[in-house]
Amino acid sequence: MRRRSEIAESVRIAVESLRMNLLRSILTTSGVVVGVVLVVVMGWTIGGLDAIWEQTISIIGKDMLYIDKWSWSGGGNWRLMEARKDITLRQAQLLSERMESAESVMPVVRLWSGSVVRGNTSLRCGILGTTTEYGQTSSAELSSGRFFTSTEDYQNAKVVILGEGVAKSLFSGEDPIGQTIKIISEPYRIIGVIKKRGFLFMDFVDNQVVIPLESFRSTVGMFERSVSVGIKTGNEKMVDIVRTEAIGHMRAIRNVPPGQDNDFSINEMQAFDEQVKNIRVGIWVVGMGLTILAFVVGSIGIMNIMYVSVTERTKEIGVRKAIGARRSSILMQFLIESAMLCVIGALIAFPIAQLIVGSARFLAVDVLDQEWATVVSPLIPLDLLGIAVSVSIVVGLAAGLLPALKASRLDPVEALRFEQ
Amino acid sequence: MSRPIIEISNLVKRYEMGDEEVYALRDVSLTIGTNEYVAIMGPSGSGKSTLMNMLGCLDTPSSGTYLFNGENVREMDDDDLAEIRNREIGFVFQTFNLLPRATALQNVELPLVYSGSSKEERRRRAEDALTRVQLADRMTHRPNELSGGQRQRVAIARAIVTAPSIILADEPTGNLDTKTGHDIMALFRELWQAGNTVILVTHEEDIARHAMRIIRLRDGRIESDTTNPDA
Ligand SMILES: Nc1ncnc2c1ncn2[C@@H]1O[C@H](COP(=O)(O)OP(=O)(O)OP(=O)(O)O)[C@@H](O)[C@H]1O
Ligand SMILES: [Mg+2]
Asked: From the CB of B50, is ligand 1 less than 6 Å away?
């Protein structure tokens, strides 16, 4: 009960004291403001990076491995890869037969640019031939219709699934399902449309059409085309096991002698995870460093102003002690005041951080027209607000501790005698 | 004599000023009972305020013993002293020492904040105290909106709000004109008549004449301790 009335009194005093010195209080908190803004903007940046990365990964899927002649990352020796033998459809089928740990294996063949025509409109886009298993991967999540069946593939059915970009260009809003388009002069019936996935530099994934492998063979032809073998592990945890197994089979299938390097590349999104993690850590370290610096500078300022406040109120402290305030009462009074200073700093920081975050997103999305930025949240993360307030309270308590101790230990007689 | 509330023996207060030692009090012994009305007089620097601070548990002696209600003050820690000041002692200062930004009511409530009374009880008791000093119509005024005499009344209300055992006043009329001073003295007399123990310091014989007992200090010693024949 006593504590409660003392806390209420302390808060009242703190509010009053902050109001009396409003400008001084606000200036004092600038270090905390900068610190909180940094924390919040940093958290937002990392969150945004994660969102962009998640989006990017979902284009291919975390549970997918691709065995290709070429490495995606562009790493390794270009000439060496150029010299590799193509991966043949036969090799892909052998691998599919031998793989045990994977959920499914699918050959994927691709024509980077082929003509697709609907009535008078025509465009060039990627044409992708694969088997029905591709329909189970995250690359083929449909917004409408269905994927083709193995029977359709087997029977060389002329059915096609459109990428979102192609659907938009050719049908602009109309329902394409059931309609017919010509792919390299052969009519295909549209049975499905893939969700929009394209993103950042990966826009091309929306500008392709998917047809059954057998249809690809007859319409486009397999002449001199290296096959990409997609392997769906079915489970992120299985990736390592599946990769090892696939490499083993693939070396055997392609007769790679022991001791020699693979003559193919294993491509996967996870390989990029490490890089993203590094960027994340980089932002975190730099951001944290700046934040700590701001908080240290800020707390020195607050400590100073609290010392000033204690001196200004020496007489008042004397009066309070004379009428029965204990050391802890006085200590609490000043700690609450300095914690409140910091909370005010945090409160000032939020709108500033929101303004920065909002402007950055507005600039990217609306001015620079970067569509990828739309996945980044326009709002500062709410959980960070909680953390920032807690941190600033702790900083306030720490910064106020020495001045508050000084106040609490003042001798009442001397304090009463104090004249400004 | 009534039950003793203050028992002081061989009290010494010594200040070290560099190499020099200043004695504010040398060997003071004194007993004051409940419901006494005591005036402490003496020339400037004779140790009156020092003695009052000791009595009020604001200051601790260099040597000697002080029994407050039979308890040895020297054995108490800081929180015990704060508690005694809060519950047992009402202090009135020459310069009022009100909190400038708080209203009369808030000033009077303050001791109850530290004793942990509920909001309603605080309000009720503070209003009672202010009514007793005839300031029922000035409760929401701040000190700078009150006259000197009114400010001292607020201070007295603050001193009596916890119903303390003793009321200590160090030159309570020192900053007031003669007329207002006498009004304040009338108030102390009322408190005393209502059963309070009142100890006050004054320079003025006129003021001291209100008290039952007059103790005169000189150079930190008790020069005389007499019953007031006029009272
Ligand atoms: N903190 C201190 N340090 C050194 N000397 C002190 C201190 N406080 C009081 N003294 C000395 O103790 C003596 C008594 O002081 P005190 O304030 O008790 O006098 P007083 O009787 O109240 O005087 P006045 O009537 O002027 O108020 C004085 O000589 C003073 O200089
Ligand atoms: Mg004095």
From this structure: yes
